[in-house]
Amino acid sequence: MLGIFDSGFGGLSVLKHINNRLPNISTVFLGDNAQAPYGTRSTEEIFQLTLKGVRFLFQQGCPLVILACNTASSEALRRIQQEILPVEFPDRRVLGVIRPASEHLHERYDGDVGILATPATIRSESYAKEVAKLAPNTSVSQVACPGLVELIEQGKCDSEQTNELVSRYTNTLIEMNPQIEYVLLACTHYPLIYDVFRKQLPDHIKLISQGNIVADKLKEYLDRNKSILAKLNQDGQRLFYTTTSIDLSDQASMFYQSPIQFTHTSLQKYDIL
Ligand code: DGL
Predict the structure, then answer these.
(1) Does ligand 1 lie within 6 Å of residue 69's CB atom?
(2) How many structural domains comprise the chain?
(3) Considering 62, 69, 145, 157, which one is annotated as catalytic?
(4) What is the pLDDT of residues 37-79, one digit of tens each?
(5) Domain, as residue range, for 224
(6) Residue 50: which CATH number?
(7) pLDDT in tens, 142-198
(8) Is 79 found in the same domain as 27?
(9) How far is the CA of 230 from the centre of ligand 1 (A)?
(10) What pLDDT is attached to residue 109?
(11) Looking at ligand 1, which residue's alpha carbon is closest to its atom 9?
């Protein structure tokens, strides 16, 4: 099965597109809702939590795991790829969302870019670095958006507080660079409040979500890597796990836009592996 990991609900906004784009590929989703948000944690905490999630998904038999989380991709992906996989799981792969989104920006758009993301993603400078490698002349302005993931996890998607925070962050971004033409929602939770962002940004600014980008790039990756594709079950199974014991299935179904049933799992045993 293909593993999809996020700190919480956000990854569902990517999973939906992957399931639509590659309907036969069986997927297992893990949301670490009990530990969300990751975006205000230290680099080491994000690495340890992400590693536990990846180990859980490997244990479910996933040959490939997608970190459908910018924060985990920024703060844990490289270390997992360089330090953990070669030693413990040489046949498995873990991919993130920063590289596909940066490639997409480079391939499709020409103009100043704005990035809205969690404090940890902004602190890592992952987008600034990745875009600089692909398009050194592109101006990247970034604003950290603390508090939004918490509100989304609590289901307060169109609350006054959510609108106020989004307005504050988008205004800061435009003040930083009034020439911005494209804004990337560089946190997989943010597409769940896409309409709130759209309302707050001037009409001429194109607002970009990552779900379809990641799904398209994953398809290209699997077309190029047939040996990985051959290891993925193609019977269209869908499994959903969460680390919280609170039943979040209704909320998750709303975000996934189809009914889903979460199974609770603890990641405790992966602490000591
Ligand atoms: N959805 C995640 C991201 O893309 C992380 C949000 C969080 O846990 O802070 O960054």
Answers:
(1) yes
(2) 2
(3) 69
(4) 999 999 999 999 999 999 999 999 999 999 999 999 999 999 9
(5) 2-96+212-270
(6) 3.40.50.1860
(7) 999 999 999 999 999 999 999 999 999 999 999 999 999 999 999 999 999 999 999
(8) yes
(9) 30
(10) 87
(11) 39
State which of 29, 47, 149, 208 you would mutate to test the pocket of ligand 1, scoring each by most atoms of that ligand within 8 A of its C-beta: 149
Which one of the listed residues 62, 145, 157, 187 is annotated catalytic? 187
Q: Is residue 149 domain-shared with residue 219, that is, in the same domain?
A: no
User: Same domain, yes or no, for 225 and 182?
Assistant: no
What is the spatial distance between Cα 234 and Cα 23, in angstroms, rounded to a whole number? Answer: 8
In this prediction, residue 273 carries a pLDDT of 46
Would residue 69 show up in a list of annotated catalytic residues for this protein? yes
Question: Are residues 204 and 160 both part of a single domain?
Answer: yes
Longest dimension (CA), the chain: 51
Query: Does residue 14 sit in the same domain as residue 81?
Result: yes
| 62 is known as an active-site residue | no
Task: Report the share of the chain in percent with pLDDT over 90.
Answer: 95
Specify which residues 113 forms β-bridges with. Answer: 140, 182
What mean pLDDT value characterizes the chain? Answer: 96
Q: Is the CB of 102 under 6 A from ligand 1?
A: no
Together in a domain, 235 and 194: no
Q: Is the whole-model pTM more than 0.85?
A: yes
Ligand 1 and 149: CB distance under 6 A? yes
